[in-house]
Amino acid sequence: MYLFSEDIAFNYYFIERMSYGCCAVNDTISQILNPHAPFGGIGNSGIGQYHGYDSFKCFSKETTILNKGYRFEIDTRYPPYEKNIKSLNFLYNLTKK
């Protein structure tokens, strides 16, 4: 889910009431670049494996909330991404290490 608002109360209202696998607040790319944040949806796109630990993971609702900070604004975080593909690839490769 992508949520764009600078109204913190509005953001919390939706975060607490909506169903989602990942929520990016005021950003569109952070959840993909963060290797520790599970990226996924709900319903058919949220189905996983089961048995043992995988059952716990499958039948638990793990969510991610990413809230964009306002200290560093870089163009690569926002569409159109085509003009920044080299920078995005560089950032993505940094997360793999």
Automatic annotation (TrEMBL):
One of its GO terms (molecular function) is aldehyde dehydrogenase (NAD+) activity. It comes from the Bacteria. Keywords: Oxidoreductase. One of its GO terms (biological process) is aldehyde metabolic process. Residues 2-64 form the Aldehyde dehydrogenase domain. Pfam families: Aldedh. This is Aldehyde dehydrogenase. It comes from Brachyspira suanatina.
